[in-house]
Amino acid sequence: MKPFFRRLLWGVAIVAVLYSCASVGRIEGGPYDETPPRFISGTPTPGALHYRKGKLSIEFDEFIKLDKPNEKIVISPPQVQQPEIKSNGKKVVITLQDTMKANTTYTFDFGDAIQDNNEGNPLENFFYSFSTGDRLDSMAVAGTVLNAANLEPIKGMLVGLHANLEDSAFTKLPLERVGRTDSRGRFSIRGVAPGKYRIYALQDADQNFAYSQPTEVIAFNDSVIIPTMEPRMRQDTTWIDSLTVDTIVERQYTHYLPDDVLLRAFKEISFSQRFLKSERLTPEKFSLYFAAPADTLPLLKGLNFDEKDAFIVEQPTGRNDTIHYWIKDSLLYKQDSLRMSITYLYTDSLKQLVPRTDTLNVLPKLSYAKQQKQKQEAKEKEQKEREKRKKKQKEEAEEPEPTEFLAVDVYAPSTLDVYDYLTLSFPEPVVSMDTAAFHVKLKVDSLWKEIPFDFERDSLDLRRYNLYAEWQFGETYSFEVDSAAIHGLYGLFTDKIKKEVKVKKPEEYGQIFFNVHGADSVAFVELLDGQDKVVRTVPVVDGKADFYYLNPGKYGARLISDTNGNGVWDTGNYAEKRQPESVYYYPMVLELKANFDLTQEWDIHDRPLDRQKPDELKKQKPDENKKKQSRNKNNRNGNSSRGRGY
Known about the structure:
Blueprint: H1 2-23, E1 39-43, E2 55-60, E3 64-66, H2 69-72, E4 74-76, E5 84-88, E6 91-95, E7 105-111, E8 114-116, E9 126-131, E10 139-147, E11 158-162, H3 169-172, E12 177-180, E13 186-192, E14 198-202, E15 218-220, E16 228-239, E17 245-257, E18 261-265, E19 275-282, E20 285-290, E21 299-302, E22 311-314, E23 322-327, H4 330-333, E24 338-347, E25 353-362, H5 368-392, E26 409-411, E27 415-416, E28 422-425, E29 430-433, E30 438-444, E31 447-450, E32 454-457, E33 464-468, E34 476-481, E35 486-488, E36 497-503, E37 510-517, E38 523-528, E39 534-539, E40 544-550, E41 553-561, E42 583-585, E43 590-592, E44 597-603, H6 623-642
């Protein structure tokens, strides 16, 4: 009998092994767990009164973890000292470090910080509250925060209320009740008591819950907020199973208002003027950097050299916050140490501009002697390479010493837009230019005919020059410059230049015409590419914004109400109670085809600002979309691995 039982046990074992090998991992991968943790109980109980212990413990039905709790969990009233927040098995435990306030409703908005431990499914919009007094405040204020310049939703921005209606409260006192924006820019401030409030948004760099630094991004509302509530009805669906509807039941609930507060966030221009640094990357040039632009150039006086007519001054952005000084005299730039004093306007403690003088000793990153040594070493290396080539090709004549020319970057694309222009850019300032040696020729049959052109230095860049001509559709042109026509500051001349371009035909373009409704008397429209970058700008004239000769592609558009008429978007100022200039988006991305005209009616007020910018142009995507993509990816990966089953 023993051998029989032994054989039987071995047979059972083999069958079990084969069964397990065959059944591990179904080919479809099994259902993906999408169920978030479920609240079970808490201490104190939700909505408790007269609770003063400063410790919160919340239990869930499964093991949980916390995702960025110090960022995502928002506590009102805001805590000056960071609370201790941690997960412990199935519990979240929060210990407040600040002294608790009497007769105050405490709210804990978890956002999506609570997740199940295995799959990371978040418990969305979980909220907890209790009161240290005999009343639980339950009103709420909700809305959206957008970037004022481009209507982009701002994630993670603090939004808060002040019962103190004075303007100074925002700059001197911490916010009283706060919320934080999600990935759509939406916020909800809960546990609000009846009353009147001012509302603000703040990118709180120093975490003091007040606007205390000019570099902080802010938003404010011109109107006073008065929270209210009203009864509303909603329809709830009950199901027999996952496919069959049982019935639709109407239920009454309390809705809190306002729920559509729109805040347009901006950063003020900082006019705090101070000297930042000097820099001399090459012996021939040094640069001065300032914190903000000024109306005048600094007064420079040489201490070991004569500064009179010693420099060519370049302001690359057309402003005075960065200034480059090109040294004309070779004896001066060969001098390693340049000692000088600079007198400039400085912002003092009273925010007044006062003259200030600093003494500088500007040294090159690489001395002139070392730079020349490197050049010589490079020449010797090149000479050795030439000698090697000569040995290999003895039959060829000796190669001549190459001539060093002034480098020039020529923008002259082979296919040219009819509205475009040619550009010459140089690594150093140009001291002379013989425009008689410039030639622009039109190809007529097999011959070339010279045509007139305009050539001028760029208004914003000292070392860039632009050439304009009346290009004709579909025609071919030649741009030529004779050798030695352009002389650089440090003695080099340019080599000859020859570029051939062909202008596009009219049927290669399309046009977009906007009939604008509701705009201010002074406004302009920016045409945007698919990455929200400006392609072209035109003013709104008689309610029209027309864009001609556009290349095929996808385009968006935004309108700026140019309040001061300076042709650019201007930010706001809290002290002056000045909102940033208004921006509106055309709500669709247009796909333009060649040889097509699109005419669009555009009422800039036909929908709220937070619903204007097309999703395709937004950089800040909703988190739920990212999670869905991640989940789909995990499903695909899970299916492929489970399907191998052994």
